[in-house]
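TL;DR need C-alpha cells for one chain.
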Amino acid sequence: MKFNCLNNQTVVEAKASDHHPIIMGDICAFNLLCRCEFKPRYANNGFSISEGVDAYRDRLLNRLIPVISELIEIHQVQILALQEAPPMVLGNNPDDNERATFEVAQEFYRKLKILFGNYIIDPAYYKSMWGGLDSCGLFLIYKETYKIQNEITQKIVDNISPKNKLRFQAFQLAKNRDKFNLVNLHADFNDQNGTTEDIKNLIQNNDIVAGDFNLKIFPQIENCSQTVQTTEPGLMPFDTYDGILMRG
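>> reply
TL;DR here they are.
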C-alpha cells in the first residue's frame, strides 16, 4: 500500500515502519515499530538501525501521523489495532532514555487527539507488552461511533499458551445494536506451533483477531475470512505475517 504523504511510497520504503498496515473493512492492524535499537547480537527492527530521540520523534510525527491520517481520511478506517505503539505509561525511577521516549510518545498522542477529536485515544485501552514497562505496547484506537462494552482479556487468557498470555488484549465492542469481540495480538515468534494454535483458538472463540501474527507460515483456518500479508521479503531474517481474521 502506497501513501500520498510518503511521496507515493510504502511505509517500508519510507522507513516509517517495518510492517505494512493491513485493512479489512473499517479495521486496520498496524505494527508501528517501536523506537529502533540495533546491536551486534540484537535488533528490534528490519532496518538494522538505532534511533536517537530526535529520529524517533521525526518518524512518529512526520511519517506515522500522516500515514494514520490517510488510513482514517482516505481508507475510512474506524478501528486501529496497533502493535508496538509508543508508551502511554512511565514506570517508577525511569532512566533518561525511558523518559525521553515517553515524552516523545506523549507528543505523538497529543497531536493525534488534536487531529482526530472524534476518535477515542484513551490510556485505558493501552497495554504494555510483556507484562512490564517497556518502550511499546498494544493500543486500540477507535471512532466514537463504536463503544467498548467490556474488556474481556482475562476471560480468555486461560486458553492461551504461556508465551502469548501477555501479548494480546481483547474487548467487546458495540455499534448501534451489533456487538462483537475483537482481539489485538502481537504474537510470540519463537514458538511457531504454539502461536498457530493460539491464533486458531482466538478466532474460534472471538469475532475478529487483528495484529502482528509473527508466523512464518500462515495456516488455512476453517470458517474464517482473512486478510494477511507478509513483511517485506528479505527485510527480516524471516518473513512473517500480519493480518486480520474474521470468524464466519
